Inverse folding.
């Protein structure tokens, strides 16, 4: 399991009931966004996203999709982030199961 460092604080605040289960998962690795993933996120946003800076979906969602693709992981998200990441994956022609909800089996 890889956890994007940029969302680790939000996870506890948004899902306090899941937090204890989350911290018990081993092994878990926190990952910062490498330059390669940042470059891919920019490419995805330029070709498949909003041309407006600060547009919707946000750059953080493109970044999450890029990190998952580079690390060959399934992206797990929730709420607006899940919706946006699914739209990004769809527009980029990624497999339908590349983005899943936090409650996915």
């Amino acid at each position: 399991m890889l956890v994007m460092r940029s969302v680790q604080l939000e996870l506890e605040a948004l899902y306090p009931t899941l937090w204890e289960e989350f911290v018990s998962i081993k092994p878990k690795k926190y990952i910062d966004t490498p330059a390669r993933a940042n470059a891919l996120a920019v490419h995805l946003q330029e070709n498949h996203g909003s041309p407006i800076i600060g547009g919707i979906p946000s750059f953080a969602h493109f970044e999450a999709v890029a990190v998952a693709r580079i690390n060959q992981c399934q992206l797990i998200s929730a709420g607006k982030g899940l919706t946006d990441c699914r739209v990004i994956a769809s527009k980029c022609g990624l497999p339908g199961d590349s983005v899943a909800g936090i409650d996915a089996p």
Remarks:
- The CA atoms of residues 90 and 96 lie 7 Å apart.
- The helical segments are 8-14, 16-24, 35-48, 59-70, 79-91.
